[in-house]
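DM from R.C. (forwarded with permission)

"hey, sorry to bug you on a friday — could you get me a structure for this? deadline for the figure draft is monday and I only need the backbone to look sensible"
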Amino acid sequence: MSDGFPYELVATDLDGTLLRSDESISQRTRDALAAATAAGAAHIVVTGRGVPWTRHILDDLGYRGIAVCGQGAQVYDAGEHRLLTSVTLDRRLAGVALAKIEAEVGPLFLAASRDGLDGEVLVGPGYAVTGTLPATPLTDVSDLWAAPLNKIYIQHPTLSDDELAEASRRAAGGFVTVALAGEGIVELLPLGLSKATGLSLAARRLGLKAADTIAFGDMPNDIPMFAWASRGVAMANAHEELKAVAHEVTTSNEEDGIATVLERLLD
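My reply, with the result:
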């Protein structure tokens, strides 16, 4: 174990967890993470965002370690700015999955994340992008399949996120993994992929195990990571499904929820 700190690995989600709503990271949280790493723990960011949407945050943090991006699809070396592993969506299966979901719920609004360090996020007509992250308009849906993808994002004109995720699992759960990753963010991923698969790969590279790990998150896509880690901590602002499986609920992402727990463990 680390000197004075009971975990050797701190895994944190980004949006709704490490980041405040303005996408900043508070000084208190930065200090708490720095103290945990000074005590010998590794910090791994585990995010649904692909590398292109994550890199600027890691650079701002001065983060030089390994990050798990794209919902587990990408293991990224932030210090060297290179992809260590990347898993892509089988586009044929994804096409079948989309057809099955649309047969159940009607037409969807689509976006997609292309593979690679500079993979664009393509956004189709009607799809509402949250935040200010760069995206490329998709005018011809056939362009969706023109290059390797990490994931497809789906939205529905009337169903809630929970309803859309549930209907998608029912219709296409044998072809893709369906993840609810944030408000308005329902994703279709390679079958069997989760934050846990990416985190276990990254941890293995560092010689660390699930038993060494404390994980922080806020959405149902963090459930596999909580199941893998020794301890799962949900933010006060977390989805009820995640709170239900968490060992502990801390304060919100706006109120330094990660620091609240790390400071207590470091004490």
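R.C.: lifesaver. The first strand starts at residue 9 and ends at 12.
me: no worries. The chain has a mean pLDDT of 95.
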